[in-house]
Q: What sequence folds into this?
């Protein structure tokens, strides 16, 4: 007897089912920092930030003209957000001291923060940031340390990571097409699974 496959999309967008024409709520997208995986984009790694987020960054930093420059700003802000969530946690002050920065002091390491922001797992980002704070290396050395980790990490696939990629791509699509129905979403997922010889009909029954 064939073992049934099960797929769990943790924290997936809420759906309102009304027969076969239920609408998937685009406002329930998991995160603003998900891949905007448009079918017409060039090949390569999907971006973590939505088009809306990137437009926001362009508005905040109009002096930055290049796409790469805006991406660096986005990664830098993401790292600052993660490392300064807890005002009582001063372990990362060597990298960024929010209170000191607000006072106008030069109390941050923008180059290193940009590289840290490329790490998607917040806990891993904190662990590496803590190690960087202990070592207090120069910018070039710190960037090399972070890139060595990222290069090693990229070679290993895992179920949560690919699940998040799929959710991110779906959420980005739903933001552009909020009238998408549950039936259309279900059919699309079955089509994708079929491309990898996986039968999802059992899962949705």
A:
């Amino acid at each position: 007897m064939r073992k049934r496959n099960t797929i769990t999309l943790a924290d997936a967008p809420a759906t309102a089912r009304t027969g076969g024409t239920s609408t998937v709520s685009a406002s329930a997208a998991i995160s603003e920092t998900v891949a905007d995986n448009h079918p017409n984009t060039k090949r390569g790694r999907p971006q973590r930030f939505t088009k809306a987020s990137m437009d926001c960054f362009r508005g905040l930093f109009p002096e930055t003209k290049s796409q790469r420059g805006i991406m660096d700003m986005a990664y830098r802000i993401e790292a600052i957000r993660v490392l300064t969530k807890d005002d009582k946690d001063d372990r990362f002050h060597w990298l960024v001291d929010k209170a000191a920065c607000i006072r106008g002091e030069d109390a941050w390491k923008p180059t290193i923060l940009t590289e840290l922001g490329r790490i998607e797992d917040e806990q891993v980002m904190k662990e590496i940031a803590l190690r960087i704070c202990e070592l207090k290396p120069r910018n070039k050395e710190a960037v090399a340390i972070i890139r060595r980790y990222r290069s090693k990490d990229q070679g290993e696939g895992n179920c949560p990571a690919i699940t998040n990629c799929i959710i991110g791509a779906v959420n980005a699509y739903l933001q552009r097409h909020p009238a998408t129905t549950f039936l259309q979403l279900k059919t699309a997922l079955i089509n994708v699974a079929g491309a990898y010889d996986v039968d999802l009909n059992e899962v949705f029954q």
User: Anything to note?
Assistant: The chain has two domains: 23-38+158-204, 61-153. The longest strand covers residues 15-16. The chain has a mean pLDDT of 76.
